[in-house]
């Protein structure tokens, strides 16, 4: 092979080996933006072509992935090494910041830098997702969000853990925010209602472990998903939520709660409703502990539609107690998925409510019910009778999952199958599944995945 030919072959091989470097900067930047920050920075040593490329790449910075090569250099949850690493990245990177997660600040001495990082991300005008989180209350007990963040046009997702909103709030905040997650954030003086009224684009709201007013009123024209978990208040009122599709809450079961869903015509997923609630209102249907359900005759079509729209329902019930469950189920004629979580109350009441199912007439939801999941199934008479009723009348029931807290021997399983009359099931496609679940009774895996999502 002649010398020119060999040279052309070598050049061709070199080009083929480094084909990725011949791509346009915009394509390479898109690729780098998907890499962990450490790997993106390391590409700067490949060649002069790559030296400054990452500095203009859209940045997704999550400090939880910043770890020193030598673990001994990291001197705390948000030690000096991590602080210097984040500072260095902000100083050298001049491109847009798409995602920023600062989750390892743990000392009040870092507050000024926190302000600088957030301000820098906002000023670049491209931040879409921001997370501020600390396990320690030292920092965020005095940390207030900067006003520039409240007016950020590009922000779509915001997660806050432990910090404070400035008060009073400016007239217009988070103009394009679609998802807001709050954990341990004080929300006094009707602040939650103000947030909902001012965040005109908000579609998803998660409120976990926050201090709230005794009465919570929810009115939001665009809200689609609302999640509450372990909050201290007396009454929750969904007053006007025309686009709400999912309402999930997990309250302290020892604290009486009043829940009123007045107007939510598109509601599809609802729970956990405690079978022994203090008071519950669904549209124009009222429940309380002292009286039986009552429905006013003058129901408007939108309120009837609200009850018919619910496809997935979760109910929490105390062991050996669930007399209100049939009345609840009657309110959801198009129900497709039913979750039931059993718990132990302050004092176990040793009586059974199994006879309530013998007197029930046909439920219209049985024409639609496809799946049932019972957490804490213990083979007591109350459970067996309810399960038997659903199996004998569920025409399209596909799967029943029993999450048992104790080991079920094969003999006990066969005995339960016989008691629930599995051979006489209304749906020939029905599958009855027994699972041993050792999780805490308050943790309901299928439902919690929906809540945390």
UniProtKB/TrEMBL annotation:
SMART domains (alphabetical): FBOX (SM00256)
Residues covered by the F-box domain: 17-68
One Pfam family named in its UniProt record: FBD
SUPFAM superfamilies tied to this protein: F-box domain, RNI-like
Domain of life (superkingdom): Eukaryota
Record-given protein name: F-box/RNI-like/FBD-like domains-containing protein
Source organism of this protein record: Rhynchospora pubera
Biological classification of the source: Eukaryota, Viridiplantae, Streptophyta, Embryophyta, Tracheophyta
